[in-house]
Structures are given as C-alpha cells and as structure tokens.
C-alpha cells in the first residue's frame, strides 16, 4: 500500500496542511506514520476527507462528523438525523426560491415604487409568514 504524504493529501483535497493536522487532532483522520517530520496517510484518507466535506456542506459540526465515523473510519451514519437535516435543507431551499422570485420581481417590476406593487406586497406577506414559521 502506497502511503500519501501530507502534502499530497493537501494537494488532492484542496485543504491546507494545517487543516489536515487539525482534523487529525479531532480524530477525523489518522496518520499511519511519518517520513521524517511529514505525516503519512493511507489512501483511504481521501474518502474520509470527502465524507468530512460532505458532512460540512450538510451543516454538521466536526464533532458531529467525528461521531459518525465508526471503527476504522467507516461511516456509522445516524439515519434519523440525516433525514431531519435533509428536510431542513428542503425547507431552506423553498425559502431561497421564494426569495429569488422576490428579487427577480423587484428587478423587473414596472412600478416606480416597489411598495406600490401588489405582487411585491404579496411576496412580502409570504416572507413574513415564512419568518414566523422559522422562529
């Protein structure tokens, strides 16, 4: 098995070497040895780092992501939590789509004052309702 130098891992993932050291400190990845002063990793570290990146994009903290790694770094995914996060992301996507529609309308609205536009007023009411639901 060919080990990857910390610099190779950084280049392959786009992460800084300092981030890799931090991830190792947090227990997210593990160096298999050293060559001189440079850490060496197994090729599976690239997949582990891809899982970390995916977890970060989904809004999980590094501690939460660390809790998802089982023995040997294999994922032990909390499916109920993943479903909850997925539902929250869908809700956020709907809110962002409504906001995008509002901004698009504001940009194209023929009214000189947007507050005089009935459609803009309707969109403001929808945004207020969405805000109330979020709190």
Automatic annotation (TrEMBL):
GO MF terms, alphabetically ordered: DNA binding; DNA-binding transcription factor activity
Domain HTH merR-type: 3-71
PROSITE patterns, per database record: HTH_MERR_2
UniProt keyword annotations, A-Z: DNA-binding
UniProt cross-references to Pfam families, sorted A to Z: MerR_1
Protein name: Transcriptional regulator, MerR family protein
Record organism: Roseovarius nubinhibens (strain ATCC BAA-591 / DSM 15170 / ISM)
């Amino acid at each position: 098995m060919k080990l990857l130098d910390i610099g190779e891992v950084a280049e392959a993932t786009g992460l800084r070497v300092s981030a890799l050291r931090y991830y190792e400190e947090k227990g997210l990845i593990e160096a298999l040895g050293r060559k001189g002063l440079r850490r060496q990793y197994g090729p599976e570290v690239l997949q582990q780092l891809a899982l970390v990146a995916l977890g970060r994009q989904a809004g999980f903290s590094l501690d939460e992501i660390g809790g998802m790694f089982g023995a040997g770094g294999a994922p032990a995914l909390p499916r109920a939590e993943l479903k909850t996060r997925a539902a929250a992301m869908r809700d956020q996507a709907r809110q962002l789509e409504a906001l995008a529609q509002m901004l698009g309308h504001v940009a194209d609205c023929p009214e000189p004052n947007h507050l005089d536009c009935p459609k803009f007023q309707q969109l403001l009411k929808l945004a207020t309702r969405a805000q109330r639901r979020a709190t």
